[in-house]
Amino acid sequence: MLNRFPLWKNLMVIFVVAIGFLYAAPNLYGEDPALQISASRGAQVELATLDQVRELLSQAGIEPKHAAFENEQILIRFNNTEAQLKARDLVADKLGDDFVVALNLAPSTPAWLESIGAAPLKLGLDLRGGVHFLMEVDMAEAIAKQQEQMVQDFRSELRNEKIRYSGVNRSGDQVVVRFRDEESLDKALSHLRRQYQDLAFSSDTSNGQFSLRAGMSDQKLKEVRKYALEQNITIIRNRVNELGVAEPLVQQQGADRIVVELPGIQDTARAKEILGATATLEFHMVDETADPQSGRVPPSSKLYSDRHGRPVVLQKRIILTGDHIVGAQSGFDEYSRPQVNIKLDSQGGNKMAAFTKDNVGKGMATVFIEYKPVGEPGPDGKRKFRKNEEVINVATIQSRLGSQFRITGIDNANEAHNLALLLRAGALIAPIQIVEERTIGPSLGQQNIDSGLQAMMWSMVFIVLFMGIYYRAFGWVANLALSLNLVLLVGVMSMIPGATMTLPGIAGIVLTLGMAIDANVLIYERIREELRAGRGVQQAIHLGFDRAFSTIADSNITSLITAVILFGIGTGPIKGFALTLGIGLTISMFTAITVSRAIINLAWGGRRLDKLPI
Predict the structure, then answer these.
(1) 71 with 11, same domain?
(2) Residues 504, 519: one domain?
(3) 226-273 pLDDT, tens digit each
(4) Whose CA is closest to 463, among 416, 521, 407, 415?
(5) What keywords is this UniProt entry annotated with (predicted)?
(6) What CA–CA distance (Å, rounded) separates 466 from 460?
(7) Which end of the chain is more exposed for a tag (fewer CB within 10 A), N or C?
(8) 611 in a domain, yes or no?
(9) How far apart are CA 140 and CA 79, in angstroms?
């Protein structure tokens, strides 16, 4: 029968609308002020920690709304921000520096909605408030570190090839290798050129000196800078996870800068402390010929301290840096003693195998190196860093190591677990410093939300009034479809893991509302034309929807192409606008054509009518 949907199509419309309502529902419940507790280096969050925090809050007369231990973190919800701030001070003082105590906002979505994966719409920095950091990578330090590695590699290569040399060191932006005779120079030059084709080599035999100079080519320098930036971005993302931010933004800006946006973060000082910390890992051999207690250290070695303050003498030569580690898991050996299983990339595996084959039974230490800013920024806006070094583990090499090996000699399982976490986190290639910081308070974010909602409300009011007056009953059908469009848009945005609503996104919603109602206007005007041409009521409805479809499709597809291009080449707010617009256009096709027709079919389809309320 004309203008009658089959049962399956009506059920499909009901199902889609119901799913939209279901996944949009979490946005009605708001958020709770919360305290998130996670472990710092050398600590572990346990159920006992949760009991300790609960007892502390109880003694202070603070009644939390809810407290839970999940994913090795503690999340405590409060009824108001006053209790949240008071609890933060108490808990941070009690737990000390071994734990990260951060203020946050936690969704108060009911458990039954969370069980089906429903979550509130993620809000961007301009709506939720939070902190914006612009960080700069110290590329000079990254290049210097690569040159130090070149020194170590050259020594190993020449030693393996039995080529005698008198010294290898850095000189400016080059590595200089000195020889006693020209024959050794020629052999070294020939071998190193084959092994390191991305370096520029030159020789000097003047004044009775035989030396070889190696510098990084422009392409090699570009690769070093790119790798340093990418590695730092990865590690910063890992650190952001400690803060429990729902939808952080960490992306590259320019050649040496990183943008970090943390929506919802209230404790900006703690966020700055965690993200600004710069650390790396190095593996060294233990110098077993030196006595740490005597204080006498050979020129080729250096005196370190472990985490308990005990002296350890290590060789200066770096076996491997932490940026070659691709995996680390704690476990137990065949004697039920704790260990950490390490996995290296192919280059790291080759280096480790080449070095350890002749050092079985000797000690190897893992050194944690942290760069901390000191003093005030200089005239150029940059700060100096102090290098702190600490031995976190000394283990015995049991056999020749390759891409996979294990670290033993660890005191307990917790120590093994923490060491694995540290190794998995990776190592920053170079220090970073925060060159710009902006904080958007929750009140300003709420003001932006209120302004955006007012814009949507007034646009909806004018559209509803116009459609209801001009198209009468059919206009109210369009208004109902438009309301469902808004609900479905919020539901779909809430379902997409990477979707974030920003202020430009709200502008995209307002634009979508206008374009969605435009489709109904085209259909209704077409129906009116068919009625004026003498068509029957049912035939006019049928032809109105069918003949307007191509026009609606062309208009929306061209707009959708624009949204895709904006999303592909845009950044930040532009992406948010494009994503909202693209999703809104797709949904408007469904609501304007399928949902509104289903309602019209149910109300007027298949009936003998002389006229339509249009």
Answers:
(1) no
(2) yes
(3) 888 887 887 787 767 655 565 577 888 888 888 888 876 656 666 666
(4) 521
(5) Cell membrane, Coiled coil, Membrane, Protein transport, Translocation, Transmembrane, Transmembrane helix, Transport
(6) 10
(7) N
(8) no
(9) 49
Q: Which has the minimum average pLDDT: 28-42, 266-280, 355-369, 560-574?
A: 266-280
DSSP H or E segment with residue 575: helix 573-589
Say if residue 410 is in the same domain as residue 539: no
Kindly give the interhelix angle for 537-569 and 596-604, rounded to the nearest 10 degrees.
170
In angstroms, the CA 59 to CA 409 distance is 41
Q: Is 113 exposed, middle or buried (0-12, 13-18, 19+ CB in 10 A)?
A: middle
How far apart are alpha carbons 489 and 510 in whole angstroms? Answer: 12
Those residues with Cβ within 8 angstroms of residue 44's Cβ, 6 or more apart along the chain or in another chain: 72, 414, 417, 418
Residue among 207, 156, 206, 203 nearest 184 (CA): 203
- Identity of the amino acid at 477: V
Rg, C-alpha atoms of the chain: 33
Dihedral of alpha carbons 285, 164, 167, 139, sign = negative
Same domain, 424 and 544: no
- Give the 3-state secondary structure of residue 523: helix
* Per-residue confidence band for 12, with pLDDT thresholds at 50, 70 and 90: very high
E strands present in 238-324:
249-253, 257-263, 278-286, 301-305, 311-321
Asked if 144 contacts 61 with a C-beta cutoff of 8 angstroms, the reply is no
φ and ψ at residue 587, rounded to 5 degrees: -70, -35
Which tokens go with 289?
A: 């010929």
Residue 46 CA: distances (Å) to CA of 56, 74, 87: 16, 9, 19
pLDDT of 42 strictly over 60: no
In a domain, 2, yes or no: no
The SS3 of residue 318 is strand
Count of other CB atoms within 10 angstroms of residue 429: 28
User: Contact 503/128 with Cβ under 8 angstroms?
Assistant: no
Residue whose token pair is 């990183």: 258
The burial class, CB within 10 Å (0-12 / 13-18 / 19+), for 200 is middle
Judged against a pLDDT cut of 70, whether residue 210 lies above it is answered with yes
DSSP state of 591: I
Q: How is residue 602 written in tokens?
A: 């149910």
Sheet strands side by side (includes 174-179): 167-171, 174-179, 210-216, 199-204
Task: Give residue 95's domain range.
Answer: 30-108
Question: Which of residues 199, 217, 235 is at a domain's end?
Answer: 217
DSSP-assigned states of every residue in 360-417: TTSEEEEEEEEEEEES---TTS--EEEEEEEEEEEEE--S---SEEEE---S-HHHHH
